[in-house]
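Structure first, sequence second, as always.
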């Protein structure tokens, strides 16, 4: 009913209801049918008022048709073949008696089987051909209509309507999961401890500052990745059910999921970076802070895409978690901080590492080429000559990392979307 279906099957929708409620339901269904929908239903012992509300009735006995046509013509048809009630009675009760082989007059000498066979033969003789002819005409019209109407709508709602409903539903479902007390305390605890460990570090402790940026890049890669990994496997059953029912387009679901998670996912890193940046004693100018802040958010949305891709491809929470941990660990090791001299045959990994690109961008947001720091007593050294900074290609080439992360942002989500296409896809019947 919510999907506004063109065809509706109902199995005894009035069973167990009082006559007034049953009449209201049948009246509502009749209005739906008159609005252009096809409603097929079985009904248990309807009253005469309910019986005459139907447009057509199909009477079966042991799987054999005894009558198909207008309700108002049913009694006249059975009277014409010799089956008429001896006293006025509910037409539905009379038809059920005939379906069970019970006759009031005219055929008392026949047993139940004989009465049923007589009715089946009468249907084949009097109604079968006309019913087949009507159905053939209807089929020809439907084929013509389908060929003529190239713009026939497949969906009952527009893409935007589906997106809006799914977007709002997603916000309501996940806001409590994201902002539960434990997650907020987790981020606050990590932020406060990190700020205290790197408390008011300056350029004389360049290694500590570089370590802070590497930790921030890693933490805000792990956290959103594992948050997103759980999303699609947990929604698999609902997605299968709703997609197989044709409730919405996959594109509207995926876009609502992606955009709905973004504002929620970005709140916690905002709290973390705002807290730790000033506690760590980094450059107090707003431009430096905002550059690092937006790079962190960029890392979060890219890592979220990685998590969605892993979850969509694997669709098993345990396996996806293990795979996510392995990939995150490899990206961390190839990030340029722990291993500066990566063997040539392994260097390709660092170009796939979100942590490496984020680490490079964070360094570029804080330091400039030609900037110096105190080293070896009273000497000064160039910041770009510091080994971990040299390992990520120095302070140049920031645009390359931005583009690489943009490709990952789109690519991971494309992988997730393609993987979801196999979930709950409806198949056309030949």
């Amino acid at each position: 009913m919510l999907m506004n279906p063109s065809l509706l099957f109902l199995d005894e929708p009035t069973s167990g209801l009082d006559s007034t409620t049953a009449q209201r339901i049948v009246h509502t269904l009749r209005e739906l049918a008159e609005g252009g929908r096809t409603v097929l239903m079985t009904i248990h012992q309807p009253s005469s008022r309910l019986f005459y509300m139907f447009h057509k009735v199909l009477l079966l006995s042991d799987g054999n048709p005894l009558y198909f046509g207008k309700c108002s013509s049913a009694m006249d048809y059975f009277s014409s073949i010799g089956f008429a009630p001896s006293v006025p009675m509910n037409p539905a009760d009379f038809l059920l008696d005939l379906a069970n082989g019970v006759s009031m007059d005219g055929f008392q000498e026949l047993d139940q089987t004989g009465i049923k066979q007589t009715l089946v033969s009468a249907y084949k003789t009097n109604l079968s051909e006309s019913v087949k002819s009507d159905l053939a005409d209807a089929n020809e019209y439907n084929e013509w209509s389908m060929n003529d109407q190239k713009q026939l709508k497949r969906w009952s709602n527009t893409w935007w309507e589906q997106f809006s409903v799914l977007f709002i539903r997603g916000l309501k479902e996940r806001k409590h999961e994201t902002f539960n007390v434990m997650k907020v305390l987790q981020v606050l605890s990590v932020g406060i401890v990190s700020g205290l460990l790197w408390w008011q570090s300056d350029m004389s402790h360049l290694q500590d500052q570089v370590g802070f940026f590497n930790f921030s890049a890693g933490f805000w890669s792990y956290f959103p990745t594992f948050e997103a990994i759980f999303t699609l496997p947990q929604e698999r059953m609902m997605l299968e059910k709703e997609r197989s029912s044709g409730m919405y387009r996959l594109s509207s679901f995926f876009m609502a999921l992606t955009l709905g998670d973004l504002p929620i996912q970005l709140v916690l890193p905002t709290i973390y970076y705002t807290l730790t940046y000033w506690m760590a004693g980094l450059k107090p100018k707003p431009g430096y802070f905002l550059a690092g802040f937006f790079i962190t958010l960029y890392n979060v949305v890219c890592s979220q895409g990685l998590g969605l891709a892993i979850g969509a491809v694997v669709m098993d929470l345990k396996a996806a978690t293990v795979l996510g941990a392995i990939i995150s660990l490899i990206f961390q090791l190839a990030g340029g901080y722990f291993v500066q001299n990566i063997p040539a045959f392994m260097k390709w990994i660092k170009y796939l590492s979100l942590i490496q690109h984020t680490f490079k961008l964070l360094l570029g947001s804080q330091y400039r080429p030609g900037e110096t720091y105190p080293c070896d007593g009273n000497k000064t050294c160039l910041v770009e000559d510091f080994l971990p900074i040299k390992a990520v290609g120095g302070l140049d080439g920031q645009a390359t990392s931005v583009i690489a992360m943009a490709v990952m942002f789109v690519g991971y989500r494309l992988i997730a979307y393609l993987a979801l296409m196999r979930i709950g896809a409806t198949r056309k019947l030949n």
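Margin note: The chain has a mean pLDDT of 83.
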